[in-house]
Amino acid sequence: MPLIAEVFPVEKDDFVTAGEASAKIKRTLKKLGVDSALLRRISVCSYEVELNLVIHSLGGTIDFQVTQDSVMLLVKDRGPGIANLELAMREGWSTAPESVRMMGFGAGMGLPNMKRNADEFDIKSEAGVGTEILMKFRLK
Fold this sequence. Notes:
This protein has five helices and five strands, in the order βααββαααββ. By secondary structure, it is an alpha+beta fold. The chain is globular, with a radius of gyration of 14 Å. α1 packs antiparallel against α2 and α2 (36-56) packs antiparallel against α5 (110-117). It has one domain (4-138): Histidine kinase-like ATPase, C-terminal domain (Heat Shock Protein 90), CATH 3.30.565. Strands 1-2-3-5-4 form a five-stranded antiparallel beta sheet, covered by helices on one side. 36% of the residues lie in helices and 27% in strands.
């Protein structure tokens, strides 16, 4: 049973509010007294995934849950899906448009950073349907 459960909607191309969900997640975990090193890892993952939703998807949600033992981020988006997951997991590989790169995003580090920082990382994607990412972090 989750101690905390919240779902954050994220809209495509909404750079005005991009980062608000990850900031709320960080504040919540800070109030709970989560270790600073773990807090940093979760913050990196929540921010990277939130920006990926804004840049690459047609919108989606971040389902944030805290239990006694773990923090979970379950992210689901609406299309277009990731054509080649193997390539997408390579550092520096990006499909971000030039307009996004001009804003300082889209360097191709999002998915590799998520995988590196999460204790558990799973990604599923289907072209034209969407992508689902599950990240878990152990609290103990």
